[in-house]
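User: Can you help me understand a structure? I only have the sequence.
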Amino acid sequence: MKRFLPFVIIIVLLGAAAAWFILQKQHGTFEKEENAFAVADKKDITKVILVDADNKRIELTQAKGVWMVNNKYAAREDLVVSLFDVLARVTTLCPVPRAGHDYVVRSLLEKHVKVEVYSNNSKDPEQVYYVGGPTADGNGTYMLRVIDGTPDTRPYITYIPGVKGYLTPRYLTDEEMWRNRVVFKYTPENIKSLTLEYTGDEQKSFTLNRISKDSFSLLPLDQKFTINQAYQQRYVRDYLGFYSSISIETFDNTNPAKDSTIHTTPYCIFTITGTDGVVNRLNMFYMPINRRSKMPFDTKGNAMTYDVDRYYAAINNDKDFAVVQYYVFGKLLRSYEDFFFKPGSTGKK
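Assistant: Let's start by predicting it. Here is the structure, written out as tokens:
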């Protein structure tokens, strides 16, 4: 019987610990710890500051109802939603075990994101904490609170209930990644004029100009290609409807080919003038075949020169270089005659 005594003692101790845990939670102590890193209400958030160990800084603030990145660019809505979700729902699982305390603290000092969350336009942050890396199983995230300007004595393991994976990727500090990627966001009603110029095929190029509330004139860029019959206003309106939300795939400003590409002749040029008078121009360039290209050869086995799925683009008055997908932009690449005939057909409509 004596040999079983140690096991009995362990079981009793575990039971006592479990009972203490339940009582503490019932009295609200642990519940407070669970919400130690979360903001009370994400709707009250007015500013968020993220700074990583390399001093890369992201400051999110609102301007006229739009979240801005570092007071320069509109922020991606999906990233704002993702970040605010974790700011409100982050939950404490438990303190870091004593055995791993020193290692986790060292890791947090070497690589972290410091988070400051401000609510209701307060000058003082509602939450300040450091976000570290993942736990060994990849489902927990190490975090360390800052209380009254001083780091807490012990880091915690955190998570979002019902969500697998660690939380660090939601605290992005890359400014380019935060930038809104929408380049065209128009309704037919707020377009004054639109020109699409194919530099290698003037017969396809056209311009649309508003002539009344519900109609546009259609002209080829070169009058010798004029089609002397009535075009379809409904085709025009359907086409302009495609511009409601068009995004680039990614910014590519560090690409060494940026400057040389921008100074070559584009494949096509979009020029849109809004009813507010603001001109938005996008130059689209062929992208040479590269390691990401899905179709390096044509159906006959010949090597392709250009990527058929992606193009380069110059936007924001050539200040930014980007990658765009044919899957997104293909529907915009119509020709002058498409407004007279069904796209792809040769007969009249």
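Now, to help you interpret it: The CA atoms of residues 99 and 315 lie 53 Å apart. The two ends are 97 Å apart (CA to CA). Let me know which part you'd like to focus on.
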